[in-house]
Amino acid sequence: MFCLSLIEHTLRLPPHLLDLPLHVAIRGELEALFLDKVIANLGLCVSVYDIQEIGKGFIFPGDGASTYTVLFRLIMFRPFVGEVIAAKLKESDANGLRLSLGFFEDIYVPVHLMPNPSHLKADPVNSWVWEYEGQSFPIDGTDEIRFQVQSIKYPSIPVEEEKPASPSSVEQGKQPNPSSVEKAKPPNRLPVEQEKQSNMKEKQSKPFAPMVITGSLDATGEDDPKGLAPFHGGSLFVHILVCSSSLKQAIRVTASEIWELLFTWP
Fold it and tell me: Residue by residue, what is the 3-state secondary structure of 202-213?
């Protein structure tokens, strides 16, 4: 889920930072530039891990700042396809779930990847209910939700083009005719068309996400008969975090899972 990326970057150091130690000043500029930013095909920058090399500084003519070529490593959040991650529910609607890791919230579970069988409960919060062995479990923000990464996308930044002004509006001193404006009004739309238009407006107003993860809660087959859906009352959560050359593992197993593993182990 976390990895190290080696990056070389040409950095301009402002003059007001020259009184600081060079390593401290450059690290602060790198954090301001990369921290909490998404780099395409690399992931979300979580932290500056270390600075390996700082080249000789040079000053451009007419500029009081010094420029350095820096070689450094970043800690990136970049899960791999098929990885199982535990998250919390952020919101739910008819299109599925939106999950959050705390520091990253653009995780979506579409309807066709929801646990099967499950259905949307008609209530003000649009909560989903998972049916398992004759029991109903609401998928809410109480428990952790384990999902499997299906895809990771890095959408391109949308570019808005300005529409050219019409010739009539460019002409000075020419006012529109009120009668023509009345005739130009479109007819009243049907409720279905109005609903489609409102849905399109909601999609357009959705904030741009430079990194989008699609997850699955559906069962994966005989190797995992319980599937990946959230379990209430005890679950196995294994999280391996690699943040340096040494391996750091954080493993949390509930007592109920240990008991089950001891008596169901083949």
Answer: HHHHCCCCCCEE
pLDDT in tens, 24-41: 999 999 999 999 999 999
What are the residues whose beta carbons fall under 8 Å from the beta carbon of 68, sequence distance 6 or more?
Answer: 10, 11, 13, 26, 54, 55, 56, 57
Angstrom distance (rounded) from CA 200 to CA 4: 39
User: Hey, what are 217's tokens?
Assistant: 């809660």
Residues in the chain: 266
Q: Which amino acid is at 137?
A: F
Band (pLDDT 50/70/90 cuts) for residue 236 is very low
Q: Are 227 and 218 in contact (CB under 8 A)?
A: yes
Q: Tokens for 23?
A: 């390593």
Torsion, Cα of 49, 55, 60, 65 (10° steps): 40
**Gap between the Cα atoms of 257 and 146, Å rounded:** 15
Q: Which two tokens stand for residue 177?
A: 């005719």
Is 89 in contact with 141 (CB distance < 8 Å)?
Answer: yes
Does an H or E element contain 24, and which?
Answer: helix 22-34
